[in-house]
Amino acid sequence: MRFDVLLHELRLFKSRSQATAAIQDGWALLDGARVKPSREARAGQRITLIGERTSRTLEIVELPSGSVSKEAAKALVREVER
Predict the structure, then answer these.
(1) pLDDT tens-digit series, residues 47-59
(2) CB 8, CB 19: distance < 8 Å
(3) What is the 3-state secondary structure (H, E, C) of the chain?
(4) How far, CA to CA in Å, does 67 sit from each of 11, 28, 54, 72?
(5) What residues contact residue 18 under an 8 Å CB cut-off, 6+ apart?
(6) Distance CA 57, CA 50 (A)
(7) How many CB atoms lie within 10 A of CB 62?
(8) What are the chain's domains?
(9) Which of 1, 26, 29, 55 is the most buried (most CB within 10 A)?
(10) pLDDT single digits (tens) 6-30
């Protein structure tokens, strides 16, 4: 699944365009590295979200199959660091 689509489907960003912008600006990393929005993401990889004052690292437990609810999306990732 594309990294930008995954961020949107996991409800980490409200829109795919916001997810794409965060990836391009270096605010969303895959396994600690800057990647293109079209990069394929897999279960087991880590997503790092960098904010102004804090950062979070999440591990992808399972990829979503289609659109999922906010509660179901939380079950697809595991918080590693905050």
Answers:
(1) 999 998 999 999 9
(2) yes
(3) CEHHHHHHHCCCCCCHHHHHHHHHCCCEEECCECCCCCCECCCCCEEEEECCCCEEEEEECCCCCCCCCHHHHHCCEEEEEC
(4) 10, 21, 28, 10
(5) 8
(6) 9
(7) 10
(8) 3-81 (3.10.290.10)
(9) 29
(10) 999 999 999 999 999 999 999 999 9
Place of tokens 């795919």: 16
> How far apart are alpha carbons 7 and 68 in whole angstroms?
12
Residue 3's Cβ-count burial label (10 Å; 0-12, 13-18, 19+) is buried
Residue type, 4: D
